[in-house]
Amino acid sequence: MSSFAAIAVTPAGLKALLPLVTGLPADLWVPPSLVADVEAWNVRVQVYDRPLKDTLADLWTAYDGLIFALATGAVVRLIAPLLSDKAIDPAVVVVSESGEKAISLCGGHQGGGDTLTRQVAHLLNADPVITGSSQAHGLPGVDVLGVPFGWSRGSGDWTGVSAAVAHGKPVEVLQDAGCTLWQDHLPPGHPLVFETVKSPAARLWISPIQRRFDPDSGFPKAQWHPRVLWVGIGCERGTPQAVIEAAIARMCRAGHFAEGAIAGLASLDLKADEMGLVNLCQERHWPLRCFTAEKLKAIAVPNPSKVVEAAVQTPSVAEAAAILASEGQLRVAKQVVRV
Predict the structure, then answer these.
(1) Mean pLDDT, to the nearest integer, of 308-317?
(2) CB distance 286 to 300 below 8 Å
(3) Which CATH number among 3.40.50.300, 3.30.450.20, 3.40.50.11220, 2.30.110.10 corresponds to the domain 4-131?
(4) For the chain: N or C, fewer Cβ within 10 A?
């Protein structure tokens, strides 16, 4: 769950931010001079007794979003030394003391600033002010396009692709995996092209394939990886986590798959408590789906094993589990990794 801090420095700003305390919810930060005003509102607050710029250095890494009831220029000067990378900086929203405007100042796309601004505006009955180019064109930001679908953002020149969209130049989109519903809700005249273009200004892949881009290429490229790959695992009892990780990495390299496209792992139900599997899934936030031998042996596979069948009553674990979990076709045949 995202965490937010609302920061007030005046009584008017405090009053403007009060609905956010329970609405988001948000931690309300105030200086000692506002403690008496807070008591009148009967709300819980955090009191900072150092200069705001010093306190902000701590809040910057502690919260996903910061909402200020302060002049925009003052906020700009406060956060300027803290800005690092839009991929990791928190969202910054500025609210007018009157509570009439909510401005997305920083981290609009990747930081979630535009979304947070809309939430704040709704809670305050304010006008949201969002100045990003994608917003002006009614388009989702290409660098956050896959977030609602749980896709993994891959490598590429995201700034260059975003710039091409902002300038209305043709951007070739090649999607061979993941939900396509988003394509049905684009505004008229959008620059995204879902077919091969002779001379695109940029290209966006949406695929489980890991592509390597030439840094000297003539136009920017980027890639999203929908989580569509289920990796079947069969292993001996006590197989170390590092061995399982190495096997998965080798399989991905050989097939040119992105590890970010992995949806989860699948195996035999006897492996539901296999520590190497369980710990790996916990670290990577992958689900672990386990099937009975009866279900696995009903699946036709290219590489059945009598040895495996004699041990666990099914001729296939890895291949059959992958097919069952994905409800699709096998992309990679069984590979045996020995250490």
Answers:
(1) 93
(2) no
(3) 3.40.50.11220
(4) N
